[in-house]
Write a structure and sequence with these properties.
Immunoglobulin-like; alpha/beta; TIM Barrel; 3 domains; globular; 6-stranded antiparallel β-sheet
Length: about 575
């Protein structure tokens, strides 16, 4: 490889990586994935524009699509996808194809019930008639086989709506067991294709009331939910993973005692212990979503102990939760975003004027986008008519207006969420095939970091291996780092036997892959701060080295004058 003058070696390598044609690979639960929830609106230009956002195109390794059964098959005739496919399903179909073009994997979350299939006869109901949900997921599996590699059966069935309409026996048998069997039957038919099937994501929902079919309320109810699933052998033999939400809404930063499931990563720890105790070590845990909410209320905590509850705390909280869940091995999906009809502002989408129709008709309602794309709508809108003749109208509600200041220097937590997520997503490698490598604290499979530059109480260390490019990526976060010291980071030079992944229970044996003892490799590091308000890089420093030798099964890099966010990459020499 030729080195261009004055350009860091590892950055050039990264450019070459992005230019490499992607080869499809079998997606297993041992692969590292960090992605987005993508909810295409259905307008003609929406999916193409969104798929080219850096959020998806550059930073994501997969996309999760929520499929409302009620919208996908609003009428009985809608089950005929060839002749009567709904507009909603066409939008998802198109978005999935765009993911394939970009080498991204896709997961479908299938929930809600249309009136014609529901027990109540109401559209958007929770409980379907017996036999209808397995038929629905089978239709979806047949349609998306070869394009979608993972399916989640329903969403948050432990919440009040589903539990009040369907008891746990119905959920376990009809939704999870029979739903999983229906998908597997399709994927086992020739040609056989590997698929990941998981249970519903669960919400901790600490303030929720008593749920029908579950003992207790709040965390106690979720604890019982896991117990019931894991005790059901038929169910567990059909699913590859349990799903959970790493949402943090009202519980705050300081309630993570791990006793039940009050919060985020303690869900993972508790569920993991339950699986291991029941001899289900081969089963993994996936993240259905992550919402790290900050609203300035008393539900939140002064994370950084500066005497205030503000966005700085939200920033620290987001880093903490992401670091913890990724250290523990979750595949993580993030940044759900809104469509044009919602006032919610998530991720970087806001309310996008995809077609420019709102700008032409109501220019005072639209502000410029900071990413050069379509303008941003500042009001909650309803939209009537076909795309070429849209009629926007304002939906009156709380009088809030979204301003340019809000967009460029946003106060909503999901922007903070995004800035941190973007940094963590680097270990997933985009469309490259990336597997989990080492995590801090795991014996003989550890990421170690030692030095006076690691100041502050919060420090997270995560590593992954890019099979496409034969490279290791390490992320190290140090909350108190300020460029006044450095540290030395070491990782195993090959894939070791992980406790929960890359082991005898893995579908593919990755152990032993990596760099050879005594061999020499180049490496580079970027250390920086991230501006809490804008997400911009601050105090960025690039460091590179050649001739790093693998000694005693380890790769080591010395970082000087480190800031809070450090990325280290080790590359195989050509």
């Amino acid at each position: 490889m030729k080195k261009l003058p004055h350009a860091p070696l590892f950055l050039l390598l990264g450019l070459c990586i992005n230019a490499t044609a992607q080869k499809p690979y079998v997606w297993t639960t041992d692969h590292m994935h960090v992605g987005v929830r993508w909810q295409p609106f259905g307008l003609e230009k929406c999916e193409v524009y969104d798929s080219n956002r850096p959020l998806i195109k550059e930073h994501s390794s997969y996309a999760q699509f929520w499929v409302s059964w009620n919208a996908a098959e609003p009428h009985a005739r809608s089950i005929d996808y060839k002749n009567h496919m709904s507009g909603y399903l066409k939008a998802i179909d198109h978005a999935v194809n765009l993911c394939m073009e970009r080498g991204l994997h896709a997961e479908l979350v299938m929930w809600h019930t249309p009136a014609w299939a529901s027990e109540s006869g109401k559209a958007g109901a929770w409980k379907p008639r017996v036999g209808e949900y397995p038929k629905f997921v089978a239709r979806m599996a047949k349609h998306f086989k070869g394009r979608v590699g993972a399916y989640q059966l329903y969403h948050e069935v432990n919440l009040q709506g589903m539990m009040n309409q369907a008891n746990m026996d119905f959920i376990k048998r009809e939704i999870f067991t029979n739903g999983a069997k229906a998908i597997r039957k399709v994927y086992d038919e020739a040609p056989k294709v590997q698929v990941i099937v998981s249970t519903s994501g669960t919400s901790p929902c600490q303030p929720c009331g008593v749920r029908e079919g579950l003992r207790g309320d709040g965390a106690a109810a979720v604890d019982d939910y896991y117990n019931q699933l894991i005790a059901d052998d038929e169910l567990m033999n059909q699913v590859d993973a349990l799903n959970l939400n790493i949402s943090d809404h009202a519980n705050g930063y300081g309630m993570m005692d791990g006793a039940l499931i009050p919060n985020c990563w303690t869900q993972y720890d508790l569920a993991r212990k339950k699986l291991d105790a029941s001899k289900y070590r081969s089963k993994k845990i996936l993240s259905s979503e992550s919402w790290i909410v900050w609203d300035g209320s008393n539900n939140n905590n002064d994370v950084n102990a500066d005497g205030r509850k503000d966005e700085r705390d939200a920033f620290e909280k987001t880093i903490t939760i992401y670091g913890k869940v990724l250290e523990r091995g979750l595949n993580t999906v993030n940044l759900p975003w809104c469509d044009n009809s919602s006032r919610w502002s998530m991720g970087l989408t806001k309310r996008v004027d995809y077609t420019g129709q709102v700008q032409r008709q109501k220019p005072e309602w639209v502000i410029p986008s900071i990413d050069g794309g379509p303008g941003i709508i500042t009001r909650k809108l309803g939209i009537h008519g076909p795309e070429e003749r849209l009629k926007p109208f304002e939906v009156k509600e709380d009088g809030l207006r979204f301003t340019e200041k809000d967009y460029a220097n946003p106060s909503d937590p999901n922007h903070l969420h995004y800035y941190v997520w973007r940094w963590y997503s680097q270990i997933a490698g985009g469309s490259n095939e990336v597997i989990r490598h080492a995590i801090s604290g795991e014996r003989e499979n550890d990421v170690t970091a030692i030095g006076n530059g690691l100041t502050g109480s919060e420090q997270y260390r995560i590593s992954s291996y890019d099979r496409t490019e034969k490279s290791f990526t390490v992320l190290v976060y140090a909350s108190g780092a300020a460029g006044r010291g450095g540290f030395e980071v070491s990782i195993p030079s090959t894939i070791q036997n992980g406790r929960y992944y890359n082991n005898e229970h893995s579908m593919i044996d990755f152990r032993g892959e990596g760099f050879k003892e005594g061999s020499s490799y180049p490496a580079g590091a970027v250390t920086k701060d991230i501006d809490r308000n804008t997400g911009a890089d601050r105090n960025l420093s690039v460091q590179e080295k050649k001739g790093l030798i693998v000694r005693e099964g380890k790769l080591t890099f010395r970082i000087g004058a480190n800031r809070r966010f450090t990325k280290v990459e080790f590359f195989a020499e050509e």
